[in-house]
Amino acid sequence: MPYLRALAFAFTLTGAFVFLVPLQALARRRGWPIQHVIQTRFCRAVCAVLGIQVDARGALPSPAPRFVVANHVSWTDIIALASLYPFVFLAKSEVASWPALGLLARLQGTVFVERGSRQDVARVNDALADVLRAGGDLVVFPEGTSSDGAEVLPFRSAHFAPLEAMAARGEAPTLAPVAIAYSDGARKIDVGWYGDMTFLPHLWSLMKRGRSQCHVAFGPPIETTGKDRKTLATETRACVQKLLASL
């Protein structure tokens, strides 16, 4: 079975590059709404190939745009979330150079940040604000790294700065907390890619695992007016912790 999954994964990526990438590039350049359909349908197909069933609890709060903040377990978080909504993601710069997946991330308008570079924070925050002002729903993982998903790591407040600045101008987007956890249907499992793990062995372990569930819990919106970035980071982390416990 893992060999069939691996073969299906390879065929899915090949098909995407042959058929979907040119169409998606054109759709984004022309601003066609079909770009969102392509993103969500492709991510649903990848989830199916990997054997990941996405279990969504609740929904994104209104109104758009939404600044979505989630805990981070693995790269599959991105695929799972994008199978539900056409999100734009903030990701570490290394993702841009990943084979195949890096190109797909760039094609979706992903904002890349140089990890550990304070000089890059201002540029990234400006880019995040641009996404929100254009009406896009944005996802950030403020833990700054992935983990085994057992707990929510401390949130870095740097990328909450656009919310603080936009709220001061009366144009704050909706701050939406989200919790992510994985299970085999009976208990939580570790699908994380972290530490010194290399990608291909990690991917192969996913293929061998078989069917799993990605539980996504959407929480109520958090008020942003009159709060600084550190307060927003603290309050959002507490909400995500509560959501994770509910899973």
How would you portray this structure in words?
By secondary structure, the protein is of the alpha/beta class. The chain has one domain (51-246). The chain has helices at 2-30, 34-50, 76-82, 101-107, 121-133, 161-168, 199-209, 229-246; strands at 52-57, 66-70, 88-92, 111-113, 138-140, 174-183, 212-218. The protein has a 7-stranded mixed β-sheet, with helices on both faces. Strand 3, helix 4 and strand 4 form a beta-alpha-beta unit. Helix 1 (2-30) runs antiparallel to helix 2 (34-50) and helix 2 crosses helix 3. It starts with a helix and ends with a helix. The model has no long low-confidence stretch (mean pLDDT 88).
> Helicity range of the residues?
40-55%
Strand content: 15-25%
Principal-axes geometry comes out as globular
Question: Distance N terminus to C terminus?
Answer: 29 Å
Major pleated sheet: 7 strands, mixed
Helices, by number, come to: 8
Which regions are unreliable across 5 or more consecutive residues at pLDDT < 50? none
User: How many beta-strand elements?
Assistant: 7
- SSE succession: HHEEHEHEHEHEHEH
Number of domains: 1
Major β-sheet strand ordering: 1-7-6-2-5-3-4
Radius of gyration over C-alpha positions, nearest whole angstrom: 17 Å
Structural class: alpha/beta
What's the overall average pLDDT, rounded? 88
